[in-house]
Amino acid sequence: MQQSPSILYASNLKKSYGTVEAIKGINLNIQGSGVYAILGQNGAGKTSLIKCALGLEKITSGTLQVIGSAPGTLQAKRQIGVILQDSDLPDLLTVKEQITLFASYYPTPFSVEKTIEMCALEDFADKRYKKLSGGQKRRAQFALAIVGNPQLIFLDEPTTGLDIEARRNLWAVIRDFAKQGKTIVLTTHYLEEAENLADRIMIMNSGIIVADASPSEIQKQSKGSVIRCETSTSYEVLQKLTGVSSVSISGRFSEIHSTDVNQSLSEMLSLDPNLKDLTVNQPKLEDVFGRLSQGVK
Amino acid sequence: MSRILHSFVLETGAELLKALRAPEFIFPTLGMPVAFYSLFAIMIPGSSNNPDYLLATYGVFAVMGPAIFGFGISVANERDKGWLDLKLAAPSLGFSYIAAKVCSTLLFSSLSLVIIYLVAGFAAGVVLPQPTWALLLTTHILATFPFILIGLIIGFIFNANAAIAISNVIFLAFAALGGLWIPIMLFPQSMQSFAHFLPTFHLSEIALYVLGAPGERDLNYHILIIAIMSLVLLAATAFAWSKQRNH
Ligand SMILES: Nc1ncnc2c1ncn2[C@@H]1O[C@H](COP(=O)(O)OP(=O)(O)OP(=O)(O)O)[C@@H](O)[C@H]1O
Ligand SMILES: [Mg+2]
């Protein structure tokens, strides 16, 4: 049977900067279209992976291929678009001027007008980049990433620093693009973003991929909520309450992970009606990491 | 082929737009040379040889600004902001970024030269045979290249803020100490010897020779020194480039 071609393929990939090992042996095979999210904390190695795939950084050992070509070759670059994590466009050129220039690098680009329309840039296409808001800047960068009509798009933390509405807008454009049969690899710190956008979520931690799963599997792992409060009820008692899966103590606070918040809370309140500073939150990424990486090992 | 050409024209256009929209670039590159030339060659009275002599040296001054600022500050800035990385990740031809900057720099230095030549010919009373004008223009335009290399080295090594400071220091020191503003004969002996280490001095001596200014000049010596300096700068540029790639 014919396998569909690899869009991004890594085998035992390693990358070191001097003595710092940023990537410690990654195996990866992304095939076909869709949105692939790489989730990870600061320093996990997400940007390093993308820079290696772009040919901006040399890999230390292992194999890395982009659409069948070596990273950094003209052949590979023609099929890639990118938003780099900390990259700004020239302040003094307008959005349209930059899109026109970037379009000229690619063999079969979208027209400038179509790109402006797809990214909804009409309102500020003739403004200089310097004069744009943060969200507008990110959309302009997205336009440069897609104008070449590439098969593969890397978005390194595309929504960091954007407000909810700007984030949702960008998500919509990303989804549209995936529907056209493109492959999008994006990095993020937000579980919510990955769950909303991705067909597959890879969790990276200290240079390795610790989990690789569909959003629904991840959701299963992250189900429930974290109750945090100051209470006189002891650790042992809390652990035995209905729905509680784990308890941890940090400083004066107890953190209770529960799959049945209502029941756990009412039992906690009847045991200690004076509990203080109560908050209930979605589990943090770190918690999910913990459980997922255990599951993978 | 035509696609590559099209892309290159757009790239050069983008460089020109960026330069034209930056007053802090226009002033030292286009304004300052002609302002200084007018001041010293026309407004301050001196010997009648001055406008000719100063045309040779201020022509070198005129091409130095676009090269050092256009490359030093803008490359450092674009590297700092990650724009260079974005270009290297895109399928633009590797050298087109530099080549477009060279073209835009040459256009700016030519423009700066034309302005000074017009002032020299029409206001300062410089009279030269046509072939001499043409040869002088060629000399001055060629003189841009060593400064482009100096600008590139600054741009590859320093961050944006440091590059602004370094470019200004080099620009002013090379101009003053190389005798571009005030003829070097008026300097104390030690400073005259020091000038031999500066490309500005040798380039202005070559321009003075072309223009037929009075005094003995060893053309071959100055060309040899400039050739050696350019080779050293070229090697340093290649080194700075590879160093910044593997930072
Ligand atoms: N140019 C570099 N030189 C030296 N070390 C580097 C360099 N770039 C990254 N590192 C190190 O490599 C590791 C991975 O960094 P990387 O930028 O890939 O992480 P990341 O997952 O993108 O983090 P973030 O979420 O903060 O963007 C970190 O320990 C970082 O300090
Ligand atoms: Mg990063």
TrEMBL record, chain A:
The protein's GO terms of the molecular function aspect are:
ATP binding; ATP hydrolysis activity
Q: Which PROSITE patterns match?
A: ABC_TRANSPORTER_1, ABC_TRANSPORTER_2
Q: Which domain of life is it from?
A: Bacteria
Transmembrane intervals: none
InterPro entries per the record? Answer: AAA+_ATPase, ABC_transporter-like_ATP-bd, ABC_transporter-like_CS, ABC_transporter_ATP-binding, P-loop_NTPase
Transport found in the keyword field: yes
Q: Which Pfam families match?
A: ABC_tran (PF00005)
**What UniProt keywords are attached to this protein's entry?**
ATP-binding, Nucleotide-binding, Transport
Protein name stated in the entry: ABC transporter, ATP-binding protein
